[in-house]
């Protein structure tokens, strides 16, 4: 088997939310931490798309920032084709970072409003030195604009002159300007209308096929994820609770939280309206539940779930973190340990 293009092992990121030192001295308060990413392991094969899904605040975007060097992990390893990136900052080392780019969620905030589009797209080429000559850079900018469905003349305009979908096309042109191999896509269609979402997703699929790109795609929209993914990872309160091929997730979900997410997809037949499903709200990430983080909302929870954190176990094509699935209480066969 070939080595994954990107592999993540034991990735953790904690943020200190403690009051100032003197306030803690006088009030007797203890330090408080939120574990935004709590031991994530995953790998992405070259030319494929892995999507991370989950409710807001589950740690998806933090994973994206850690991969791109916009935040440093507290613990863990990030390897891109054998290069360790866990301790590096954004843009370092340049030879590796040039091959990794990001498409941000908000096309209205991710483009500099003071720059013309041509300068926005040319900046990564100038920064990484891929096109030192200004005339060559401009020709490449014109080509990229046409490649993403805009015109070369659009390079002279400012971002405010474009619609949301057009701005996201500009963001995509900027992201592929350094000829990267890996793109982190942080909810790139969530701020767009449904019809425009389809256009952007089709463009991303065409780019992947033509340029051989590898995607980490982050979304809370399961319809979008189903359309673009090869594999799907489901996150809850910083932990990856299920990882499986996309078809397996939608046909045969294992974890109760994955089933909850799928039950929220509109269904005209109302086939699941009488199903027993998890209830309640996401727990406070500063003080998450002991054991399985999902147990307060899970109809299958028992005492073991409330006291012991489950490990990642293999069940068919899926890896799942759930005692109920392991013990056969989820209506599934018993499973064996992964690896």
Overview of this structure, please?
The protein has about 350 residues and is α/β, with parallel strands linked by helices. The protein has one domain: Rossmann fold. It is built from twelve helices and 13 strands. The protein has helices at about 20-25, 60-65, 95, 115-130, 135-145, 165-175, 195-210, 220-230, 245-250, 255-265, 305, 325, and strands spanning about 5-15, 35-45, 50-55, 75-80, 85, 100-105, 180-185, 215-220, 230-235, 240-245, 315, 320, 335. A nine-stranded mixed β-sheet has the order 6-7-8-3-9-10-12-11-13, sandwiched between helices. Helix 5 packs across helix 6. The longest helix has 18 residues, at about 195-210. The chain is globular, with a radius of gyration of 22 Å. The model is unreliable at about 335-339 (pLDDT under 50).
Brief digest:
By secondary structure, the protein is of the alpha/beta class.
Task: Map the helices and strands.
Layout: E1 6-16, H1 21-27, E2 33-44, E3 49-53, H2 60-67, E4 75-80, E5 83-84, H3 94-97, E6 100-103, H4 117-128, H5 134-147, H6 164-175, E7 182-186, H7 194-211, E8 214-218, H8 222-228, E9 231-236, E10 239-245, H9 246-251, H10 256-263, H11 303-307, E11 313-315, E12 318-320, H12 323-326, E13 336-337
Parallel strand pairs: 3-8, 3-9, 6-7, 7-8
Antiparallel strand pairs: 1-2, 1-4, 4-5, 9-10, 10-12, 11-12, 11-13
């Amino acid at each position: 088997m070939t080595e994954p293009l990107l592999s993540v092992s034991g990735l953790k990121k904690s943020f200190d939310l403690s009051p100032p030192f003197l306030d803690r001295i006088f009030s007797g308060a203890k330090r408080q931490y939120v574990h935004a990413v709590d031991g994530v392991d995953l790998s992405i094969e070259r030319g494929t798309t892995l999507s991370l899904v989950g409710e807001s605040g589950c740690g998806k975007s933090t994973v994206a920032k850690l991969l791109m060097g916009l935040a440093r992990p507290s613990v863990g390893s990030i390897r891109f084709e054998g290069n360790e990136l866990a301790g590096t900052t954004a843009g370092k080392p340049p030879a590796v970072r040039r091959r990794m780019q990001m498409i941000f969620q908000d096309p209205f905030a991710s483009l500099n409003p003071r720059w013309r589009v041509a300068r926005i797209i040319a900046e990564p080429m100038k920064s990484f030195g891929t096109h030192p000559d200004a005339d060559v850079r401009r020709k490449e900018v014109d080509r990229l604009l046409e490649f993403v469905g805009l015109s070369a003349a659009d390079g002279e305009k400012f971002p405010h002159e474009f619609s949301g979908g057009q701005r996201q096309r500009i963001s995509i042109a900027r992201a592929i300007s350094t000829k990267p191999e890996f793109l982190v896509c942080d909810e790139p269609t969530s701020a767009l209308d449904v019809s425009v979402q389809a256009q952007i997703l089709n463009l991303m699929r065409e780019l992947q096929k033509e340029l051989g790109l590898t995607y980490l795609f982050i979304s809370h929209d399961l319809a979008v994820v189903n359309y673009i993914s090869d594999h799907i990872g489901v996150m809850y309160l910083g932990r990856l609770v299920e990882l499986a091929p996309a078809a397996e997730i939608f046909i045969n979900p294992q974890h109760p939280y994955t089933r909850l997410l799928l039950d929220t997809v509109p269904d005209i037949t109302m086939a699941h309206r009488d199903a027993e499903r998890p209830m309640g709200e996401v727990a406070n990430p500063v003080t998450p539940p002991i054991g399985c983080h999902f147990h307060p909302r899970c109809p299958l929870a028992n005492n073991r779930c409330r006291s012991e954190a489950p490990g990642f176990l293999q069940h068919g094509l899926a890896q799942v973190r759930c005692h109920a699935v392991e013990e056969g209480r989820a209506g599934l066969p018993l499973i064996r340990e992964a690896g």
